[in-house]
Write a structure and sequence with these properties.
357 residues; alpha/beta; 2 domains; six-stranded parallel beta sheet; 8 strands; binds thiamine diphosphate; binds magnesium ion
Length: 357
Amino acid sequence: MNKNSLTIGRSNYLDNNGTLLKALPDSLNKRKFLISLYQTMVLTRLFDETAINLQRTGIIGTYASCRGQEAIGVAIGHAMLADDVFIPYYRDIAAQFQRGVLLEEVLQYWGGDERGSNFSQQANDFPLCVPIATQLCHAVGIAFALKYQSKPNVAVVTCGDGATSKGDFYEALNMAGAMSLPTLFVINNNQWAISVPLERQTASPTLAHKALAAGISAVQVDGNDLLAMYISVSDALEQIRQTGKPLLIEAVTYRLSDHTTADDATRYMSQKALDDAKQKEPLIRFKHFLTEQHSWTDKEDRALYQQCQQQVDTSVEVYKNLPAQQPGEFFDYMYEQLPNSLVEQKQAFLDGLKRHE
Ligand SMILES: Cc1ncc(C[n+]2csc(CCOP(=O)(O)OP(=O)(O)O)c2C)c(N)n1
Ligand SMILES: [Mg+2]
């Protein structure tokens, strides 16, 4: 057995306080670019807080917070090419925003309005996926299509740590590896699958190890270190474009929220674990880095927060003023052409409504 192939590397650019551990590549060390990464993180954090308040006041139905995990989506969103295909799960709004999904569309989704998944400015990407791990198999199918069409693009798919316990995960990795399909798997290891902690999910030393049996190279990255995440995702995409082979990144982070607005994490998550995790959270670390390395000021920070909050508030107003979804319209956005079985279901639904009017 080749021992080396069973060793998983771990990538870090920032320490837990946000101090730079090694020099950044020159191409990245540009103030404007680094601020644009930070801006997407702040926007996502403020959207997240607002969405929870909207759920609490009955304006959206439910919501899955990505608090503390923003760096993963920001890295993915900024590193992908426009023509790559993103197959997200429900904590990926940072990447979705960066790729052109509108804030009000995400509110529509969580408000139960299927029009929110019919992105007006993002034709290629998939809606966020709530059924755990199913998106991984879809992603491999998409990667197959990209390869079949000789496109230089990558299917980027995300999932949680819990999803890696499902058969779909292993099936997807196996097929991507066996058929050499241009897929980037990114695991958001936030340590919890609702109330089930990581140590009860698996005996694998890391989640990245799970890729090795499928012949897929993998790396573990500090998922709260935006620089390490951005560089890892960018490098992986470039490598996949060159070799056509899949790769996997395990992003290690922590869920700083309830699982969703339907959950109460105080019933199973210790206050100490949460307090410890808060010390490593991505926004504070990145702000510290910008301050130390790029003379970022509190004044600039306040202005950025204000501008992002305004963007969020505007999206809430747009969402609240949208015309109501018509009955039956929720059938219309999954397929380009509705299959016959669903045409029948839609008709039956509309007939049923008429009977009850
Ligand atoms: C197929 C399926 N089974 C069960 C569920 C219920 N469920 C919702 S979230 C979740 C845990 C997912 O944990 P993880 O993959 O770690 O993602 P996280 O929510 O922590 O980001 C489960 C079991 C579901 N949505 N889909
Ligand atoms: Mg999880």
